[in-house]
Design goal:
The chain has 119 residues and is an alpha+beta fold. The protein contains 4 helices and 2 strands; from the N terminus they run H-H-H-E-E-H. Strands 1-2 form a two-stranded antiparallel ribbon. Helix 1 runs antiparallel to helix 4. The longest helix has 30 residues. The chain is globular, with a radius of gyration of 17 Å. The protein starts with a helix and ends with a helix.
């Protein structure tokens, strides 16, 4: 029974993380254009560990949706690199996500305040 509960909890945690990952990536890129390894480093600093195999498809999907664009920049350590930046649509989308996140945080705090006060 305990193994099943742990499995369910881990699955729920993964779903929660996926839901906010896109917002975090867009927020990081909104600060300044970013190279994928820089994005991964910032996510790791925030304890949102992401592997390249997860990040690259997400960046491609965001680019295809018109939220991101990229520039090629020469690198001293090899071939040119893609640096991502938000488009105007991406800025608007991020603003909407941040507003929704703020509303969700307030709603969750309100609806769980009795549970949290019992700890």
């Amino acid at each position: 029974m305990m193994i099943e509960m742990e499995k369910i909890l881990n699955n729920t945690k993964a779903q929660m993380r996926k839901g906010i990952l896109e917002m975090c990536i867009l927020s990081i890129i909104s600060e300044k254009e970013a190279y994928p390894s820089d994005i991964i480093e910032k996510l790791e600093e925030s304890k949102l560990i992401v592997v390249q195999g997860t990040l690259y498809p997400l960046l491609t999907r965001l680019k295809n949706a018109g939220l991101l664009a990229y520039n090629w920049k020469e690198s001293v350590q090899g071939p040119p690199r893609k640096y991502y930046h938000l488009t105007d649509l991406g800025q608007d989308f991020l603003a909407g996500l941040l507003e929704t996140w703020s509303q969700l945080v307030q709603a969750v705090q309100q609806s769980t305040k009795n549970v949290n006060s019992n700890e």
